[in-house]
Amino acid sequence: MVLSRGRGRKYLVLLVTLVFMLVxxxxxxxxxxxAGAFFDGLxxxxxxxxxxxxxxxxxxxxxALAVMLPVFASxxxxxxxxxxxxxxxxxxxxxxxxxxLAFAVAVILKGIFGKRVxxxxxxxxxxxxxxLAAVAWANxxxxxxxxxxxxxxxxxxxxxxxxxxxxxRALFDYLSFATLTGLGYTDIAPAGPPVYSLTWLxxxxxxxxxxxxxxxxxxxxxxxxxxxxxxEAK
Length: 234
Prior knowledge:
Layout: H1 2-8, H2 10-28, H3 33-53, H4 58-80, H5 86-113, H6 120-147, E1 152-154, H7 165-180, E2 188-190, H8 195-227
Antiparallel strand pairs: 1-2
């Protein structure tokens, strides 16, 4: 019974941890190397937890593991090499984390579209997938910055943060969520290709995600009402 209740709240744990990481990392991550290491470890913990609750089929876990382990390794390398040679490891880290997160979002959506009955945790799962997609896009922006730094416009007082591992990630998390939600740009904005294309693609993805997922939930709730299903009993 306890295990069943725990599985029923699996996405709640992932969502709360993810929100905590996104809120606290910009505040504490750049302050000290130990704080930065803590948040890198937290990201690894989030990925590990997602590995067990999102990827349920054996082939999914093999694919996720093949991507996840090099992500962890490249992150550790960043603490073992001088700052001036961080770039290759950072490129590997961002590239593979994008693949891992995109795969997780795809599996979450596949699970949602395979449902016949909607539970509360399924709604949290959909929202978690939305946030994971934003983080994936943030890593795509960070990767783009490493390759084409002139494609971004950043306020002069924030330029120094782009040289800090956690400061840079926090800025691109902000850019991604601002783009995905249509909030608009202030401190950091696209200033050239390929970021122009990446931002409008993210906007289109965000609108598509919300429209399709909400339509799926509404359709399932109507079907449940017609059939007389009660999610609490399942």
